[in-house]
Amino acid sequence: MARRSNRQTAMRARLAAAAARIMAEDGIEDFALAKRKAARRLGVLDTQALPANDEVEAELRAYRALYQSDHGNLIEDLRRLALDAMRTLERFNPYLTGPVLKGTAGPYAEIDLQLFPDSAKDVEIFLLDRDISFSTQEARRYAGDRAHAVSLISLDWHGQPLRLAVFDARDERLALKTSVAGKVAERGNIAEVSALLSSEQAAKEQ
Predict the structure, then answer these.
(1) Percent of all residues in the chain with a pLDDT value above 90, rounded to a whole number
(2) Out of 13, 97, 126, 160, which residue is the most buried by the measure of CB atoms under 10 Å away?
(3) With the CA atoms of 83, 123, 163 and 96 taken in that order, what torsion angle do they form, in degrees rounded to the nearest 10?
(4) Of 198, 201, 196, 200, nearest to 101 (Cα)?
(5) What is the mean pLDDT of residues 25-32?
(6) Could you tell me if 106 and 60 are in contact, meaning their C-beta atoms sit under 8 angstroms apart?
(7) Do the Cβ atoms of 56 and 16 come closer than 8 Å?
(8) What is the pTM of this model?
(9) Do 4 and 41 form a contact (C-beta atoms < 8 A)?
(10) CB burial string 135-167: b at 16+ within 10 A, e below
(11) What distance in Å separates the CA atoms of residue 104 and residue 98, rounded to the nearest whole number?
Protein backbone atom coordinates (compact mmCIF):
# COMPACT_ATOMS: atom_id res chain seq x y z
CA MET A 1 0.00 0.00 0.00
CA ALA A 2 2.80 2.42 0.92
CA ARG A 3 4.63 1.62 -2.32
CA ARG A 4 1.50 2.36 -4.35
CA SER A 5 1.00 5.61 -2.44
CA ASN A 6 4.60 6.65 -3.18
CA ARG A 7 4.15 5.87 -6.87
CA GLN A 8 0.95 7.89 -6.98
CA THR A 9 2.62 10.83 -5.23
CA ALA A 10 5.50 10.74 -7.71
CA MET A 11 3.07 10.58 -10.64
CA ARG A 12 1.09 13.55 -9.27
CA ALA A 13 4.32 15.54 -9.14
CA ARG A 14 5.21 14.58 -12.74
CA LEU A 15 1.72 15.48 -13.93
CA ALA A 16 1.78 18.80 -12.07
CA ALA A 17 5.11 19.70 -13.69
CA ALA A 18 3.91 18.63 -17.15
CA ALA A 19 0.63 20.54 -16.81
CA ALA A 20 2.49 23.65 -15.66
CA ARG A 21 4.81 23.45 -18.67
CA ILE A 22 1.80 23.13 -21.00
CA MET A 23 0.16 26.19 -19.42
CA ALA A 24 3.34 28.25 -19.62
CA GLU A 25 4.32 27.29 -23.17
CA ASP A 26 0.91 26.92 -24.84
CA GLY A 27 -0.85 29.82 -23.14
CA ILE A 28 -3.54 27.57 -21.63
CA GLU A 29 -5.33 29.07 -18.62
CA ASP A 30 -7.67 26.14 -17.89
CA PHE A 31 -6.13 23.91 -15.20
CA ALA A 32 -8.41 20.96 -15.98
CA LEU A 33 -7.53 21.06 -19.68
CA ALA A 34 -3.80 21.30 -18.93
CA LYS A 35 -3.99 18.33 -16.56
CA ARG A 36 -5.86 16.22 -19.13
CA LYS A 37 -3.27 17.07 -21.78
CA ALA A 38 -0.45 16.21 -19.38
CA ALA A 39 -2.09 12.89 -18.51
CA ARG A 40 -2.39 11.99 -22.19
CA ARG A 41 1.23 12.90 -22.86
CA LEU A 42 2.43 10.76 -19.96
CA GLY A 43 0.00 7.94 -20.69
CA VAL A 44 -1.70 8.20 -17.30
CA LEU A 45 -5.17 6.65 -17.05
CA ASP A 46 -5.59 6.82 -13.26
CA THR A 47 -7.62 9.97 -12.58
CA GLN A 48 -6.77 9.68 -8.87
CA ALA A 49 -3.21 10.59 -9.81
CA LEU A 50 -4.24 13.98 -11.16
CA PRO A 51 -2.77 16.82 -9.08
CA ALA A 52 -4.81 19.57 -7.47
CA ASN A 53 -4.83 23.02 -9.05
CA ASP A 54 -2.67 24.35 -6.21
CA GLU A 55 0.03 21.80 -7.06
CA VAL A 56 0.01 22.81 -10.72
CA GLU A 57 0.03 26.49 -9.80
CA ALA A 58 3.11 26.02 -7.61
CA GLU A 59 4.90 24.27 -10.48
CA LEU A 60 3.78 27.01 -12.88
CA ARG A 61 5.28 29.71 -10.68
CA ALA A 62 8.52 27.74 -10.43
CA TYR A 63 8.64 27.17 -14.20
CA ARG A 64 8.07 30.83 -15.01
CA ALA A 65 10.70 31.92 -12.49
CA LEU A 66 13.24 29.56 -14.05
CA TYR A 67 12.49 29.79 -17.77
CA GLN A 68 10.44 32.96 -18.29
CA SER A 69 12.34 35.65 -16.44
CA ASP A 70 10.39 38.46 -18.12
CA HIS A 71 7.08 37.10 -16.83
CA GLY A 72 7.03 39.61 -13.99
CA ASN A 73 6.96 42.47 -16.50
CA LEU A 74 4.06 40.82 -18.33
CA ILE A 75 2.06 40.50 -15.10
CA GLU A 76 2.75 44.12 -14.24
CA ASP A 77 1.54 45.24 -17.69
CA LEU A 78 -1.62 43.13 -17.38
CA ARG A 79 -2.34 44.49 -13.91
CA ARG A 80 -1.92 48.05 -15.15
CA LEU A 81 -4.40 47.34 -17.95
CA ALA A 82 -6.74 45.80 -15.39
CA LEU A 83 -6.45 48.84 -13.13
CA ASP A 84 -7.17 51.14 -16.08
CA ALA A 85 -10.33 49.15 -16.87
CA MET A 86 -11.35 49.12 -13.20
CA ARG A 87 -11.04 52.88 -12.94
CA THR A 88 -13.14 53.28 -16.08
CA LEU A 89 -15.77 50.94 -14.60
CA GLU A 90 -15.44 52.29 -11.06
CA ARG A 91 -19.16 53.04 -10.69
CA PHE A 92 -19.85 49.29 -10.91
CA ASN A 93 -17.62 48.32 -7.94
CA PRO A 94 -15.02 46.29 -9.89
CA TYR A 95 -12.72 43.61 -8.47
CA LEU A 96 -9.81 41.94 -10.22
CA THR A 97 -9.68 38.15 -9.96
CA GLY A 98 -8.17 35.17 -11.76
CA PRO A 99 -4.66 34.56 -13.15
CA VAL A 100 -3.78 38.25 -13.58
CA LEU A 101 -4.33 38.89 -9.87
CA LYS A 102 -2.60 35.64 -8.89
CA GLY A 103 0.39 36.38 -11.10
CA THR A 104 0.17 33.18 -13.17
CA ALA A 105 -1.33 34.65 -16.35
CA GLY A 106 0.24 34.12 -19.75
CA PRO A 107 0.51 36.68 -22.57
CA TYR A 108 -2.91 35.81 -24.01
CA ALA A 109 -4.76 35.67 -20.72
CA GLU A 110 -8.13 37.28 -20.21
CA ILE A 111 -8.31 39.96 -17.56
CA ASP A 112 -11.13 38.86 -15.24
CA LEU A 113 -13.16 41.50 -13.43
CA GLN A 114 -16.16 41.07 -11.16
CA LEU A 115 -18.72 43.89 -11.27
CA PHE A 116 -21.58 44.56 -8.84
CA PRO A 117 -23.90 47.13 -10.47
CA ASP A 118 -27.46 47.95 -9.45
CA SER A 119 -28.53 46.45 -12.77
CA ALA A 120 -26.63 44.28 -15.27
CA LYS A 121 -28.11 46.35 -18.08
CA ASP A 122 -26.35 49.43 -16.69
CA VAL A 123 -23.00 47.91 -17.68
CA GLU A 124 -24.14 47.16 -21.22
CA ILE A 125 -25.59 50.65 -21.62
CA PHE A 126 -22.32 52.13 -20.31
CA LEU A 127 -20.33 50.21 -22.94
CA LEU A 128 -22.76 51.00 -25.76
CA ASP A 129 -22.67 54.72 -24.92
CA ARG A 130 -18.88 54.57 -25.43
CA ASP A 131 -19.06 52.56 -28.68
CA ILE A 132 -17.25 49.62 -27.05
CA SER A 133 -18.06 46.35 -28.84
CA PHE A 134 -18.80 43.34 -26.66
CA SER A 135 -20.45 39.93 -26.55
CA THR A 136 -22.42 38.36 -23.72
CA GLN A 137 -23.21 34.92 -22.36
CA GLU A 138 -24.73 33.50 -19.22
CA ALA A 139 -22.83 31.61 -16.50
CA ARG A 140 -23.15 30.53 -12.89
CA ARG A 141 -21.06 31.32 -9.85
CA TYR A 142 -21.52 29.86 -6.40
CA ALA A 143 -21.48 30.88 -2.75
CA GLY A 144 -21.66 27.70 -0.70
CA ASP A 145 -24.06 25.44 -2.61
CA ARG A 146 -26.18 28.30 -3.92
CA ALA A 147 -25.92 29.23 -7.60
CA HIS A 148 -25.81 32.85 -8.71
CA ALA A 149 -26.66 33.65 -12.33
CA VAL A 150 -24.20 36.10 -13.86
CA SER A 151 -23.77 37.73 -17.23
CA LEU A 152 -20.29 37.40 -18.76
CA ILE A 153 -19.35 40.31 -21.00
CA SER A 154 -16.30 39.83 -23.24
CA LEU A 155 -14.54 42.70 -24.96
CA ASP A 156 -11.15 43.96 -26.08
CA TRP A 157 -9.35 46.37 -23.76
CA HIS A 158 -6.38 48.01 -25.48
CA GLY A 159 -5.52 44.80 -27.27
CA GLN A 160 -6.10 42.48 -24.31
CA PRO A 161 -9.20 40.32 -23.82
CA LEU A 162 -11.27 41.51 -20.88
CA ARG A 163 -14.07 39.48 -19.28
CA LEU A 164 -16.59 41.10 -16.98
CA ALA A 165 -18.63 38.87 -14.67
CA VAL A 166 -21.67 40.98 -13.79
CA PHE A 167 -23.25 40.06 -10.46
CA ASP A 168 -26.16 41.36 -8.48
CA ALA A 169 -25.08 44.22 -6.20
CA ARG A 170 -26.14 42.15 -3.16
CA ASP A 171 -23.56 39.46 -4.03
CA GLU A 172 -20.60 41.77 -3.38
CA ARG A 173 -20.32 40.66 0.24
CA LEU A 174 -20.40 36.95 -0.62
CA ALA A 175 -17.40 34.63 -1.07
CA LEU A 176 -17.90 33.51 -4.67
CA LYS A 177 -16.64 30.38 -6.43
CA THR A 178 -16.74 29.17 -10.04
CA SER A 179 -18.16 25.76 -8.98
CA VAL A 180 -19.84 24.22 -5.93
CA ALA A 181 -16.69 22.27 -5.06
CA GLY A 182 -14.25 25.00 -6.07
CA LYS A 183 -12.25 27.33 -3.89
CA VAL A 184 -13.33 30.87 -3.10
CA ALA A 185 -12.00 33.20 -5.80
CA GLU A 186 -9.41 35.69 -4.58
CA ARG A 187 -10.16 39.25 -5.63
CA GLY A 188 -8.84 42.76 -5.22
CA ASN A 189 -10.54 46.15 -5.52
CA ILE A 190 -9.07 49.28 -7.07
CA ALA A 191 -7.17 50.29 -3.93
CA GLU A 192 -5.73 46.79 -3.47
CA VAL A 193 -4.61 46.39 -7.08
CA SER A 194 -3.09 49.88 -7.02
CA ALA A 195 -1.21 49.02 -3.81
CA LEU A 196 0.00 45.77 -5.38
CA LEU A 197 1.43 47.63 -8.36
CA SER A 198 3.04 50.23 -6.10
CA SER A 199 4.76 47.53 -4.03
CA GLU A 200 6.05 45.83 -7.19
CA GLN A 201 7.44 49.14 -8.44
CA ALA A 202 9.10 49.82 -5.10
CA ALA A 203 10.67 46.35 -5.15
CA LYS A 204 12.13 47.07 -8.61
CA GLU A 205 13.68 50.32 -7.43
CA GLN A 206 15.47 48.75 -4.46
Answers:
(1) 46
(2) 97
(3) 40
(4) 196
(5) 81
(6) no
(7) yes
(8) 0.79
(9) no
(10) eeeeeebbeeeeebebbebebebeebebbbbbb
(11) 9
